[in-house]
User: What shape does this take?
Amino acid sequence: MSRDAYSRAGVDQGAAEEAVAGLVRALASANVPSRQVQLPGHYASVIRLDARTGIALSTDGVGTKLLLAEQLGRYDTVGIDCVAMNVNDVICVGAEPLAMLDYLAVEKADPQMGEQIGTGLARGAELAGIEIPGGELAQLGELVRGFDLAGACFGVVELDAIVDGSTVEAGDPVIGLPSSGLHSNGFTLARRALDGIPLDDERLGRPLGEILLEPTEIYVRPVLELLRSQVDVRGLAHITSGGLGNLTRLRNDLDYDFDQPLDVPPVFELIEELGEVSVEEMHEVFNMGCGFCCVVAAGDEAAALELLRSHYPATQRIGRAVPGPS
Assistant: This one.
């Protein structure tokens, strides 16, 4: 699959995958007793607390979307992104997120910027139903130009209730929940593609900067409601970098046929056109309008759609699991 445009913009996804693999190999050599539940390359890690309960852990940041916030001088939404990128991963294993710690690295402390970032973090915490009991502010003028924002989230899950995708079967419906826009992925490519357009340009109906800065959707409440219902939830996927291909993390012997994709917001079409990005690469880098997927048992499709549409009316079945390559 082509990655030419993203590579030209400065992000080598292949090198990133190799670097992660190297990190994992090195960490696996640590001679310590492991409490980790083995999951198939999933979004969050689960550590056994006791015979019944697991702690789900995830960490992530906002990425180069922060450069856009800096350019606009608006920092009150990126905290929502930080919370979203973490809690949306934790719920993928069926866990309820409980708390997050934030890490803010700055070139030089700015009280006004700090308060705005805190405003977004507080709003994100409310939307996710979590606490942010603490964090870290590091002044790293010798290392950082501007700022960086990341978080680490934990939640709890009963070990026998972990959702790991192992029960997904061919024919199971994939239900897509709409995104709020780019979320917090692919901004290096998006900024490069849209570089010639002023951020106050309104060709998409709103100022471009406002569209790009739209916070990442937080899916915690509807997904927890689905998990607590009678619906047989077999797989959950946060659609970030990698697009709908993230679903293959659930079971590598299955594939997916997406015959009814969600509507693609116009901002993606603008990036594709002006950045001369192939359709294939667009679907690899961006969520393309679908921010989260739920795979449920075939007999529970109608019940799942009814529940999720009460939160997101545009929710629909976007495809089905199908047998993978032999």
Observations:
- The mean pLDDT is 92.
